[in-house]
Amino acid sequence: MFRPAMHRRRFLQTATAGFAAGSLSCTSPTFAAPPRPVIEIEYPYHGAVLNRRHGLQSADGLTIDVRGRAWAGALVTINGVAADHEGDRFRASLVLRDKETDLVAVAENAAGRQEARVRVVWDRHSEPRYRFSIDDNSFFLRDIFQKGYDSLFDCWYLKMLRDLNRKYGAKFSVNIYYTTGDDFRLPQFPDRYRGEWRDNSEWLKLAFHAHADKPDRPYQDAPPEKLLADLDQVAEQILRFAGPEAYAPPTVIHWGMTRQSALQPLTTRGVKALSGYFRQMNGVWDVNYRFGDEISEYLSRHDAWKDFDSGIVFSRVDIVGNSVPLDRIVSTLEPQIKDPDTAEILDLFTHEQYFWPFYRNYLPDHPQRLDAAIRWVTDHGYKPVFFHEGFLGGRE
Predict the structure, then answer these.
(1) In degrees, to the nearest 5, what angle opens at C-alpha 20 toward C-alphas 18 and 24?
(2) Is 384 within 8 Å of 130 (Cβ atoms)?
(3) Distances (CA, A) of 87 to 42, 76, 90
(4) Residue range 40-122 in CATH 3.10.150.10
(5) pLDDT for residue 35
(6) Do residues 350 and 325 lie in contact, with contact meaning Cβ atoms separated by under 8 Å?
(7) β-strand 319-320 against 112-122: which pairing, if any?
(8) Parallel, antiparallel, or unpaired: how do β-strands 184-185 and 312-316 relate?
(9) CATH assignment of 129-384?
(10) Contact status, residue 37 vs residue 116, Cβ threshold 8 Å
(11) How far is CA 276 from CA 78, 239, 257, 364, 394, in A?
C-alpha cells in the first residue's frame, strides 16, 4: 500500500526497532494503531445534506444536534455554543441559518486547544420529491428514425412515458447514447419533431449518458477530456434535433464511474447532481464515482451528500426498476420513507433496453413496474422533479 514519504521514514524506523526487539525476545513486532483525534465531530457528517427531518425547523432556521468525542473534562464549544460534555462525549444544539454552515468544535483544557470542523448543507425549502431517470436510451430514437412516425408519440415507448405523465404527472430524464452501433447515430435523427420536444419539455428531458453501450465502464479510467468530448457530442445533437428546452445536463454517467479529476470539469457543463448505486458488490464499493469506502458507506444510507471540492451533490438510487420484480416494488420503496435519512428524496431509476421484445433480457411487465413505483410515490405525497433544477429539484 502506498504511504506518503513523510510517514514512510517513521514506518521504517518503527519496523527496524520492532525487528531488533523481536530478535532479542523471539516475539513478533507489534505496531500501535494511530491515535484518535483529540476532538472529532461524529454527527453530522462532513457534506451532509440536512432537511426538516433532521431537526426542528422554524423561521429562525434548522435546529440540529451536533455530537462527537473530545478530551474528558475539556471545555467544548461548537461555533461558540457551550456543549454538554460527559466522559469523552459531547453534544450541543445549534441553529443552521445559511445554505451551508461550517461547524467548528473546539476543545480546551490545561494541555491546550484543539478543533475539528465539518461543513453541512441545509435544504431549507425541502419537500418530499422524486426523480425518475431512465438510462441506456438509444433504441427508441432508432425506432423513430427508421419508422418515420408523424409524431414522436407514435413510438410506443414515448407514448408509454406520456401516459404515465398524464396519469400521475410523472417527469422523466431520458439519458441517451450517441449511437446504437452501425445502424444508427444521433446525426441521423431528424429535427422535424422539435416542436413536440419543446411542447413536452416540462416533463420530458434528454441528457447525455455515454457515447455507446459498450464498452462497459467507459469513463472509469478515461481522462476527463474523453468524457467531456463525448458529452459535448451528444449535447450538440440534442440541441439540434430537440432544442434547448428539452436538453438537460447529465445526472447519471454510464456505470456511475469516473475519475475524480473529471468531477469539477463536469460542472463546467452544468452538472449539479450525479446519481449512483453506492453499493458493495463482491465486497467492494461500486457504481460510486470512485469515492472511498467511508463516503460510499455514508451515501448507501442517505439521500444525498455534497462534494465541496467539485460542488456536485451525489444522490443514492433507491430502486432499479428492471432489477426489482413487480410484486416487490412497494416493499423495496416502503422502508425508504420510514428513515429520516432516506425519506425526503426518492431517486427512481431503470434502463430502456428491458422494454424492447428483441432484447435478450426483455421484461414484459417492465411498464407495469414503472406504473407501480410511480403510483406508490404519488399516493405518498412525493412530487416529480428534475435534479438539475434548483437544489435536487427543490427550491434553492
Answers:
(1) 115
(2) yes
(3) 15, 12, 8
(4) no
(5) 62
(6) no
(7) unpaired
(8) unpaired
(9) 3.20.110.20
(10) yes
(11) 33, 26, 8, 26, 19
- Mean pLDDT split into 10-residue runs, the chain, 396 residues: 32 32 38 69 98 96 97 94 95 97 95 95 97 98 98 98 98 98 95 98 98 97 98 98 98 98 98 98 97 98 98 98 98 97 98 98 98 98 98 96
Give the whole-angstrom CA distance, residue 284 versus residue 278: 10
The grid cell for 223 is: 481522462
In degrees, rounded to 5, the angle at the alpha carbon of residue 37 between the alpha carbons of residues 36 and 42 is 95
CA 147, chain centre distance (Å): 37
The confidence score (pLDDT) of residue 5 equals 34
Pair type for strands 345-351 and 129-137: parallel
**pLDDT of res. 358:** 97
For residue 32, how many other CB atoms are within 10 A of its CB?
6
Cell of 220: 472509469
Query: Where are the chain's structural domains?
Result: 40-122, 129-384
d(CA 88, CA 73): 8
Q: Which grid cell sits at 267?
A: 460542472
| pTM of this structure | 0.90
How many Å separate Cα 69 from the centre of its chain?
A: 29
Please tell me the predicted confidence (pLDDT) of residue 232.
Answer: 98
Question: Looking at this protein, which amino acid is placed at residue 394?
Answer: G
